[in-house]
Specification:
The complex is a heterodimer.
Chain A (H helix, E strand, L loop, with lengths): L1 H30 L3 E10 L6 E11 L4 E5 L6 H8 L7 E6 L2 E2 L7 E4 L3 H4 L6 H6 L9 H14 L15 H14 L4 E5 L7 H18 L2 E5 L3 H7 L2 E6 L4 E7 L15 H15 L3
Helix pairs in contact in A: 5-6, 8-9
Chain B lengths: L2 H24 L10 H13 L1 H34 L1 H14 L4 H12 L3 H26 L2 H9 L4 H39 L4 H10 L3 H29 L13
Helix pairs in contact in B: 2-10, 3-4, 3-6, 3-8, 3-9, 5-6, 5-8, 6-8, 7-8, 8-9, 8-10, 9-10
The chains are: A alpha/beta, B mainly alpha.
Family (chain B): Belongs to the binding-protein-dependent transport system permease family.
Membrane topology (chain B): Multi-pass membrane protein
Subcellular location (chain B): Cell membrane
Chain lengths: 286, 257
Amino acid sequence: MTRTLATHHHPGMENSMELQENPVALGTAAARPRLEVTALSKTYGSGPNAKCVIEDLTFTVTTGEVVCIVGPSGVGKTTLLKCLAGLQPATSGTAAIDGRRIDGPPPEMALVFQDYSRSLMPWLTVRKNVRLPLRHLRLPAQEMNQRIDDALRAVGLDGSDGKYPWQLSGGMQQRVAIARALAYRPEILIMDEPFASVDAQTRFELEDLCLKIRDDFGMTILVVTHDIDEAVYLSDRVVVLGAKPARVLDVIGIDLPAPRDQISTRSLPEFAEQRTTVLSMIRKPA
Amino acid sequence: MNRKLRLPVSAGGVAAALALWQLIATGPMAGGPLPTVADTFAELAGLLAGGAFWAALADTLVIALAGLAAAAAAGVVTGVLIGSFEPVRYATAAVLEFLKPIPPIVILPLVVLIFGPTTPMSWFLVFFGCVLPIIMQTVAGVHDADPVTLDTARSYGLGRVEILARVTLPSAMPFIGTAMRVAAPAALIITVVAGLLGGGPGLGRSIYQAQASGDYPVLYAYVVVLGVLGLAFQGASALAERRLLHWHASYREVLTP
């Protein structure tokens, strides 16, 4: 009897301890952002010719969130992404993933460049382009092929894997670049004006693909765009940058119902409101 | 131009050139050192029937191709090193720019003095004559690699060596291909010059011997062979370039997506 009680009692105690600890653990996890940009500045050159492109940027992105960065063109958004991707060092401040400072390309991150035609290797077929970043992961051949097949199917490019990028339209090339990022299975996906140079129809499809990736893979996604409508449609939060040097004007939470739909979401009155909020923030004289 | 017409028109051009040669050899230069087309081709037939000609041809081909291959390997490796590391570039720039305008024939006496009239002598001249343009073009190609393409590779965590092999080198291939297309006929010419003026083995030496004995029909028969060989080298290197660089903008066959 006592023994039974004791055995019952013991795990019960463990449970209650876990219960006490869990909310604390969950609380820190929720409060702790996946990607954290703190007082980030980037200045090119020095002395009287120094050009400050980014000044004192601070914002965060939480796991599973889609965050868009908007701002006037030439504001230094690409510079910011290069700092986040570890391709160039910040002048001051930090960018960190899970509290770990980014000082080189982070393995859990993939970057989709704006200029897809230069980002894809013209000497490799679509399939080999997607495979290129997987090679050094030393995956078993079967898993590698599975990942490539899955990624190509996700972007609707199955059947084009033997073609060369330059045989494809702009929208399809950008899909290859996205498939390459997907096959890499990043936890954080960063995209630099990914849909800027594709036609409106393809743009809608790729935007929905972006949201689907987030839902399917639980990815954390950061998108730089100069299209306010796109930012509002995609985002959980929009980071509005002001110009020259870039600094954060505001971070606007986008409270639109999920799943989002190109027609119904965009025709919601809230969509128009959010859009107006972001737009007036950008156009406001500094 | 209509595809079907190309071959007959080309053949017509060749026939016209031969006719002009025959005219000059029988007209203004009759009895001079320029043999007629008929005499030359008769000697050519005689050469093709003998073993010495084929041995000389083989020597020439082996020297030209081995020199070219060595120049390509050394040139690409050196070019990639120079193109990838700035200190190496500054350390070598002056020397390379100094060596570049020196034609191989200028160092021929020195090389003959060192090696004698031998296969290594000819081979070294070919190497010297081909390697510098290949280095220069490779350096240019390495610098031409697109920064966005390189950033893409870096962002996916590719290492230095992998980026070099899988991104930088393919990017430089169009430049290397052009250098090789120019170097292939040059390798043949240098091999012949090395035989003609330096006594190295091969067709050059045969030409020298024909010239020394005043046997002009044989001399020109060799010249015809060299011309055909030059065409073959040019054609083969152009074909190889097209196959290797089929993806490059200048060779693409654009398919409708």
